[in-house]
Amino acid sequence: MSITKICCIGAGYVGGPTMAVIAQKCPDIQVTVVDLNEERIAQWNNPDVEKIPIYEPGLSEIVANTRGKNLFFSTEVDKAIDEAQMIFISVNTPTKTYGSGKGMAADLKYIELCARQIARVAKNDKIVVEKSTLPVRTAEAIKSILDHTGNGVQFQILSNPEFLAEGTAVQDLLNPDRVLIGGDTTPEGEAAIQSLVNIYSNWVSKDKILTTNVWSSELSKLTANAFLAQRVSSINAISELCEKTGADVNEVARAIGMDSRIGPKFLKSSVGFGGSCFQKDILNLVYIAKTFGLREVADYWEQVILMNDHQKRRFANKIVQTLYNTVADKKICFLGWAFKKDTNDTRESAAIYVARDLVSEQANIAVFDPKVEEYQIQSDLDYLNVSERSKKRVTSYENPYDACHSAHAIAVLTEWDEFRDYDWQLIYKNMQKPAFIFDGRNLLDGKKLTEIGFVYKSIGS
Ligand code: NAD
Ligand code: UGA
């Protein structure tokens, strides 16, 4: 089938950037991104393209070039489903917060709603593409819903997980390491796979487009995230040992990363990984393993999460211990709140957990993040059930120098490049003495800061 109209359900961090790139690379395809969230769609349609809801380097330029030509954002979900030959499901799949599997399994209620809506609306054959990250064998459930419409419409279900990382989404989409497409091995399934291969072939070389069966594709996505997160937890585990032994985790990471079998990426020790997916996807993997009675498999992967929780807690504890075992009413400046640089996304950011631990010790926290706004910080604290009283201890600043002014300590929670270039001499002058820096990202020049007079503490040395 030659595709001329695509609908994507879910205008989030994946749906928005992915569809913008498809629209740019396939000018003959009309791409409509739909969402129930009216405010989000209004933001995507904001005439000032710098105000689209997601900050990603290079994204606003692509949206400016395609929006209104072959890229549309709309709340008319039924209409977009009806018109499209291919429908991407790109809705959120958070960890369940209720019922069986609470705290572990993926909540598939949004996926099921999409499947039911497609089943209700579709009047002609469609290809449905799972773009969201899903437990292995979800396609079976989607198919079962779609196959019971009774109106003779035929559906093909493909799995096409997304591997982009936030902060580099556009680059990752333009130059992916691979595109993975899983589908049925029937002639109809293979034809559907080919339709999607044809779309990606507009800019991705054929040798990077991998086709598999549906289950391998679904499971590969969870596995990729589990392996990536496991590397971070592994190096973070070593960071604690480094602190006890005089080894330096940056040197260790460099030394092992030069082994081509290990490789240098994802070995940056930190305050702990965050983001909407690593934790949720590993918990989901653990849950699936448990469901099949695979206790050892489940325990193995769960350890990645436990190590990460430990690393976040350890960072907060270190601040308290170093500040003479009390942070009560002391001002601690957080540089960064996002879960990594170059994104305004704060989901599961380590900063939230460290803040929670410090306000429970009655610290006052002054946050500066170049892309995160005050309301977001407060709502992140709500998510961790931080009390109203404690929340008042966390304030957000528009300017890093004001945030650091008269602070007892600075904690670097996100690796924003601009932090390196601040006037550290001036910051030092205006802080309480001794002036401490806890660099949760090993970002700053410790030697230079020590020369200025700071007490500089990094991770893993
Ligand atoms: P998101 O929360 O940013 O966006 C999801 C959107 O779907 C929301 O705007 C929500 O309103 C909308 N939605 C939910 N149900 C809907 C429905 N029935 N009809 C219409 N709209 C609906 O989520 P995200 O970060 O884009 O993630 C989406 C999926 O992609 C998840 O499964 C995630 O695991 C996966 N993923 C995310 C990333 C990432 O970097 N964020 C990367 C790869 C994969
Ligand atoms: C991650 C994966 O990298 C993507 O391939 C995947 O598509 C995505 O999850 C997803 O499924 O959502 P993302 O979470 O956006 O992408 O960002 P990463 O670059 O993977 O960083 C995740 C977290 O790990 C961040 O908090 C980051 O600071 C931390 N990290 C990463 C480290 O602490 N050290 C490292 O060496 C690398």
TrEMBL record:
InterPro entries in the cross-refs: 6-PGluconate_DH-like_C_sf, NAD(P)-bd_dom_sf, UDP-Glc/GDP-Man, UDP-Glc/GDP-Man_DH_C, UDP-Glc/GDP-Man_DH_C_sf, UDP-Glc/GDP-Man_DH_dimer, UDP-Glc/GDP-Man_DH_N, UDPglc_DH_euk
Reactions the enzyme catalyzes: UDP-alpha-D-glucose + 2 NAD(+) + H2O = UDP-alpha-D-glucuronate + 2 NADH + 3 H(+)
Keywords annotated in UniProt: NAD, Oxidoreductase
Residues reported to bind substrate: 162-166, 221-225, 261, 268-274, 339-340, 441
Top EC class, one word: oxidoreductase
Pfam families xref list: UDPG_MGDP_dh, UDPG_MGDP_dh_C, UDPG_MGDP_dh_N
Residues the entry annotates as binding NAD(+): 10-15, 35, 40, 91-95, 132-133, 166, 277-280, 347
A single BP term in Gene Ontology: UDP-glucuronate biosynthetic process
Gene3D superfamilies: Cytochrome c1, transmembrane anchor, C-terminal (1.20.5.100), NAD(P)-binding Rossmann-like Domain (3.40.50.720)
GO molecular function, one term: NAD binding
Highest taxon of source: Bacteria
Family from the record: Belongs to the UDP-glucose/GDP-mannose dehydrogenase family.
Function: Catalyzes the conversion of UDP-glucose into UDP-glucuronate, one of the precursors of teichuronic acid.
Stated name of the protein: UDP-glucose 6-dehydrogenase
